[in-house]
Specification:
This protein has 164 residues and is of the alpha/beta class. The chain contains 6 helices and 5 strands. It has one domain. It is globular, with a radius of gyration of 15 Å.
């Protein structure tokens, strides 16, 4: 049986607004010898706990949709998730080049639709992001980037979307 897919953004969902951009300010971010934790140690524990619960209860696989795909490989992203005891992503979308938020939102939706077209066996899926994406009943919007996925009720909306 094909697992459901959770298309997951990171910033604003499991890495919250107070931490946005901090990875680029860390002295060792560009150092190839620095560990992943030295570069990306600021995920919200509460939001990560909700993500773990959603993955465990739904059995879904994760596809990363975040801008992080510009600077990280799938293998490095998988290690970040393993380091936090979260099921690692099975794939990640390509980077969306954009000059404004409308282009970013449209580009992300287009990439998700392209991914689904290449994987027709996937019939159950959901998207969680802190940007409003027009994916209708499959989309869960983290409207408060200060709490992200730990926002009350989002876990249940995601589980419902992943079950359709």
């Amino acid at each position: 049986m094909t697992p459901s897919i959770l298309f997951l953004d990171i910033d604003g969902v499991i890495r919250l607004e107070p931490q946005f951009g901090t990875k680029f300010k860390k002295p060792r971010f560009r150092d190839p010898d620095a560990s992943m934790d030295e570069k990306n140690d600021d995920w919200c524990p509460k939001a990560v706990a909700v993500l773990k619960s959603v993955v465990t209860l739904s059995g879904c696989d994760i596809v990363v949709t975040s801008d992080w795909v510009k600077n990280e490989t799938l293998e490095r992203m998988q290690q970040l998730f393993r380091d936090r005891a979260v099921k690692p992503p099975v794939d990640m979308l390509t980077y969306v080049h954009y000059t404004n938020m409308d282009e970013l939102e449209k580009g992300r939706v287009d990439l998700i639709e392209e991914w689904l077209a290449v994987h027709p066996e996937v019939t159950k899926w959901a998207v969680v992001d802190d940007m409003p994406l027009p994916l209708y009943d499959r989309f869960v919007w983290c409207t408060d980037a200060m709490v992200g996925l730990a926002q009350p009720g989002l876990k249940f909306f995601l589980l419902d979307a992943l079950s359709r």
